[in-house]
Amino acid sequence: MECYEHVCDPLEQQRLMQVITDLMARRPRIDLQAGYFVDAYEAESECLDAQFKLMRLILQKQVSIEKAENKRLQDALNLSYVLSA
């Protein structure tokens, strides 16, 4: 949802909303014929959890990079205003 809040293009918002909906609908696969049902279900759950954590880390990294870039640009603009005054 954090990504969705920062998208301005309506087509990109629609595409991103579909991705978010698909991710929300993901569930661990259930194989009732497996000999070790509990182990398989736990492994699926851990895999989904690891994917979520990875996506969260990627998003946090992207946000920190963008904040740093925005800060750098703001500092450069402030410096140019000081020099021109």
How is this structure best described in words?
With 85 residues, this protein is mostly helical. The protein has one domain. The protein has 3 helices and no strands. It has helices at residues 2-5, 10-25, 37-84. It is elongated, with a radius of gyration of 21 Å. The protein starts with a helix and ends with a helix. The model has no long low-confidence stretch (mean pLDDT 82).
Distance between the termini: 42 Å
Low-confidence stretches at least 5 residues in length (pLDDT < 50)? none
Percentage of residues in helical conformation: over 70%
The major beta sheet can be summarized as: none
Helical/strand content category: mainly alpha
List the helices and strands in order: HHH
Number of domains: 1
Helix count from the secondary structure assignment = 3
The percent range for strand residues is under 5%
The overall strand count is 0
> Overall pLDDT, averaged?
82
Cα Rg: 21 Å
Indicate the overall shape: elongated
How do the strands and helices of this protein lay out in sequence?
Layout: H1 2-5, H2 10-25, H3 37-84
Keyword list:
single chain; 85 residues; mainly alpha; 3 helices; 80% helix; 0% strand
Describe this structure in a few short sentences.
The protein has 85 residues and is an all-alpha fold. The chain has three helices and no strands.
